[in-house]
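Progress narrative, Year 2. Work on Selenium-dependent hydroxylase accessory protein YqeC from Veillonella tobetsuensis advanced from sequence curation to structure prediction during this period.
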Amino acid sequence: MTSQTQYWNRLIQPGIVALVGAGGKTTVLSKLVEYGRLQGRPIVVTTTTQLYESQVAQYEPIYTKDINEVDEYCTKRIQQGYCGAWFSGITRTKVDSVDCESIDNLSTLHPNWQIVVEADGAKEKWLKAPKHTEPVIPSQTKTTIGVVNLQMLGASLDEDHVHNLELVQSIVNREEGAIVTPSMLAQIVLHKQGLFQYSKGKKVLFCTGYDTVQHRIIDDFISHVLDSDITAIVLADGYKASCEIRRIIQCR
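Result:
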């Protein structure tokens, strides 16, 4: 039986990893840090959008735009067995983004580090389609992990569940209130203005909420996305702290 450590280790690799989508990005980020530290892997957390300061305070971040200060601080944190964390500042309750060029530069300085970038915002909804200005993904990104919450299958297209609702409606050509089907969710994943817009590197589809939906419905959804350029599909139970990977389907 494959352990959680083995599953998560398949996602922990040197280089920049960008997290996009909705319904579990910060969960994936925290799990990559948790299992990366268990394995002694050098990991740095940052964002090209915004995160609540409370979500990242545990990582004891540095707030600066000076790459030399970042290099020194994160190197020290990693040598001490922690992850590095870096944001350009704090505005009220949120940490401020770091520009892509600076993240690329840090990756060039330390190609053996995994730099995990939360590159997309979703206002804690389960599904989104990005605006033309998002996500913001560094050019040297090795892997883009697109997150969807499978609890959207059978849920309504409405403001309670969906960020950028009108954009999602335009992709699936459905009215507000329509029930999300496997083929509709697949459209959001595969559309050129959908989940992986502007993605770089290999694509990994990370699905949370695997334990909340009938598996025959999930299998129907998977059948719609298998014949694509997605490298792997990760199916995970739960959400937030309870998230555990149950299956990884290698597609390419």
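The chain has a mean pLDDT of 96. Residues 25-38 form the longest helix (14 residues).
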